[in-house]
Amino acid sequence: MASIFSKIVAGEIPSYKIAETENCLAFLDVFPLQEGHTLVIPKKEVNYLFDLPEELYAELMSFSKEVSKAVKKAMPCERIGVAVIGLEVPHAHVHLIPITQMDDMNFANPKLKIEANRMEQIASAIRSEL
């Protein structure tokens, strides 16, 4: 069964797309810890990050770095925190989270509820920095 991320890649589920390459996709997390919380995934469904073929792993990390620069420019923050947890969705992904303090990346914190129009504004702001 396809993961929710594979369904986003296939266009079966809408997303707030930030950027994509032939092999990778970046989009806003709909259950964010902070405004601008972005997920970066390989389009190929692989459950565990370290099971990715070397070239795809390198591309995913390089793409994540480029997207993180745009997120940092677009969102008020001190830096972009990076997390790879890999338990919540069986599809490798990198979290890029705008942070100013350590607690901004605490996954035990309640997730934000952001209106669709604000999500579109955030996605547009980040895209404009790419």
Give the arrangement of secondary structure elements.
Blueprint: H1 4-9, E1 17-20, E2 24-28, E3 38-42, H2 54-74, E4 79-83, E5 94-99, H3 116-127
Antiparallel strand pairs: 1-2, 2-3, 3-5, 4-5
Description of the molecule:
This protein has helices at 4-9, 54-74, 116-127; strands at 17-20, 24-28, 38-42, 79-83, 94-99. With 130 residues, it is of the alpha+beta class. The protein has a single domain (4-127), classed as HIT family, subunit A (2-Layer Sandwich). A five-stranded antiparallel β-sheet has the order 1-2-3-5-4. Helix 2 (54-74) packs across helix 3. The longest helix has 21 residues, at 54-74.
Q: Tell me about the biggest sheet?
A: 5 strands, antiparallel
Termini separation comes to: 33 Å
Low-confidence stretches: none
**Share of helical residues:** 25-40%
Helix-strand makeup class: alpha+beta
Work out the strand percent. Answer: 15-25%
Corresponding CATH superfamily: HIT-like
CATH names the topology as HIT family, subunit A
In short:
The protein is 30% helix and 19% strand. It is α+β, with helices and mostly antiparallel strands and 130 residues long.
Pick out its properties:
single chain, 130 residues, alpha+beta, HIT family, subunit A, globular
